[in-house]
């Protein structure tokens, strides 16, 4: 791979957009889900680092929309529209939603990874955005990087190496 | 009782709490490893989630992380996070196996369980000191261990806080070993992340408004 662009970094509960020749990356996904929405022809991609499934879980007024699946994904679509993307052409790749620790507890928090994945899929279905590929669940952390020029999502884990989906 | 109402005096009180816990944990760890271990609380601050990851060494850095929940009058999350090299040194010393390595494939059961036990003893001594000092009931759950990216591990402890805020109050304890070169690059941490609704209980117990 010839590195010529910049890497656009997305923090936790954050989102951003990258265009060719740049790539876009988020690091250390655990129970969070990285959602990439892209337009193959325009070579534009947005990435949201979703931390919680539903903004009704937020107990404050001024919410950070990128934090929740139900607000982050619509906001990402809006932002991509500003880049000239037509929403019906969007495709998605998702990764994350791991269960980092296994131990018995009745707390909802323990199942937050799978719940995030479910919520993300529900939103994508609502906007009829097909999921081209996914790498979700398990119990490993992931660092992901999407390259709009190839539309490949590179996924790095500590224990299982690197793969592309 | 979060972000808007926390003053620098409150942070100082939390720092004092951290120092008391850290002093006890340092004594336990020094005894266990039979070497001098220094722990201190450099700062208690309210930081963004991303800054929290940086405090822990950057979201990508690989650590041995122990996570446990705190239950009782005060609830929250506690992490004992060691860079893998430092964890290897501690466990080699504890189980007397010079070849022990968390990063070479399957972690031997004895090593993993020694690490969990280490987390148990340290967090136990840390939290019992807090409990004595505040007269609050604080008890830890059984710790869980993960060798992984620090971002993936720590973000789990941010879930509770993330319901009400994008910032977290971190009681950060730095763990330093004596006689280890490159001290600044190798450093463990205790992170104590009380749930937002627990601050009131802590301050009330200490007579701080």
How many domains of chain A? The number is 1
Unreliable spans of chain B: none
**Count of helical regions of chain A:** 2
Shape of chain B: globular
CATH architecture of chain B: 3-Layer(aba) Sandwich
Structure summarized in a few sentences:
Chain A is built from two helices and ten strands, in the order E-E-E-E-E-H-E-H-E-E-E-E. Chain A is 18% helix and 34% strand.
Annotate the secondary structure layout.
The complex is a heterodimer of chains A (165) and B (209).
Chain A: E1 7-10, E2 15-19, E3 23-29, E4 33-39, E5 44-50, H1 69-82, E6 91-96, H2 112-126, E7 131-136, E8 142-147, E9 152-156, E10 162-164
Parallel strand pairs in A: 1-3, 6-7
Antiparallel strand pairs in A: 2-5, 3-8, 4-5, 4-6, 8-9, 9-10
Chain B: H1 8-33, E1 37-48, H2 49-55, E2 62-72, E3 76-83, H3 84-95, H4 109-134, E4 138-140, E5 144-149, H5 150-162, E6 167-177, E7 188-194, H6 199-205
Antiparallel strand pairs in B: 1-6, 2-3, 2-4, 2-5, 3-7, 6-7
Describe, in plain words, how this protein is organized in 3D.
The complex is a heterodimer of chains A (165) and B (209). By secondary structure, chain A is α+β, with helices and mostly antiparallel strands. Chain A contains two helices and ten strands, in the order βββββαβαββββ. Chain A has helices at residues 69-82, 112-126; strands at residues 7-10, 15-19, 23-29, 33-39, 44-50, 91-96, 131-136, 142-147, 152-156, 162-164. In chain A, strands 1-3-8-9-10 form a five-stranded mixed sheet, with no helix packed on it. A five-stranded mixed sheet of chain A has the order 2-5-4-6-7, covered by helices on one side. The radius of gyration of chain A is 15 Å and the shape is globular. By secondary structure, chain B is an alpha+beta fold. Chain B has one domain: CheC-like (Chemotaxis protein chec), CATH 3.40.1550. Helices cover 44% and strands 28% of the residues of chain B. Chain B has six helices and seven strands; from the N terminus they run αβαββααββαββα. In chain B, α1 crosses α4 and α3 crosses α4. The N and C termini of chain B lie close together (11 Å). The mean pLDDT of chain B is 83. The chains are: A alpha+beta (165), B alpha+beta (209). At the A-B interface, β3 of A face α2, β2, β5 and α5 of B. Chain A: This is Probable chemoreceptor glutamine deamidase CheD.
């Amino acid at each position: 791979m010839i590195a010529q662009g910049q890497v656009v970094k997305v923090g936790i509960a954050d989102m951003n957009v990258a265009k060719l020749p740049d790539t876009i990356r988020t690091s250390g996904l655990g129970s969070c889900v990285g959602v990439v929405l892209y337009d193959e022809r325009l070579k534009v991609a947005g990435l949201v680092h979703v931390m919680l499934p539903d903004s009704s879980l937020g107990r404050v007024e001024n919410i950070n929309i990128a934090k929740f699946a139900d607000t982050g994904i619509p906001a990402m679509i809006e932002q991509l529209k500003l880049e000239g993307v037509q929403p019906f052409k969007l495709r998605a790749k998702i990764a994350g939603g791991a269960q980092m620790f296994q131990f018995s507890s009745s707390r909802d928090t323990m199942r937050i990874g799978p719940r995030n994945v479910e919520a993300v899929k529900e939103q994508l279905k609502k906007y009829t955005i097909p999921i081209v590929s996914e790498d979700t669940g398990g119990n490993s952390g992931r660092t992901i990087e999407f390259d709009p020029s190839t539309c490949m999502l590179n996924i790095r884990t500590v224990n299982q190496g690197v793969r592309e989906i | 009782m979060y972000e808007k109402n926390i003053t620098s005096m409150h942070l100082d009180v939390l720092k004092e709490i951290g120092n008391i816990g850290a002093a006890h944990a340092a004594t336990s760890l020094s005894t266990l490893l039979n070497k001098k271990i220094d722990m201190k609380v450099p700062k208690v601050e309210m930081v963004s989630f991303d800054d929290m990851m940086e405090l822990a060494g950057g979201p990508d850095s690989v650590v041995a992380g122990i996570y446990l929940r705190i239950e009782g009058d005060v609830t929250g999350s506690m992490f004992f996070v060691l860079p893998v090299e430092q964890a290897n040194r501690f466990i080699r010393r504890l189980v007397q196996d010079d070849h022990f390595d968390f990063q070479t494939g399957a972690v031997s059961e004895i090593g993993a369980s020694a690490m969990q036990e280490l987390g148990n003893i340290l967090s136990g001594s840390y939290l019992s000191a807090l409990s004595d000092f505040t007269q609050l009931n604080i008890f830890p759950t059984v710790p869980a261990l993960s060798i992984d990216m620090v971002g993936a591990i720590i973000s789990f402890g941010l879930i509770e806080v993330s319901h009400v805020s994008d910032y977290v109050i971190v009681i950060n304890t730095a763990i330093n070993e004596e006689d280890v070169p490159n001290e600044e690059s190798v450093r463990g941490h205790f992170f104590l992340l009380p749930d937002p609704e627990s601050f009131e209980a802590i301050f009330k117990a200490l007579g701080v408004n």
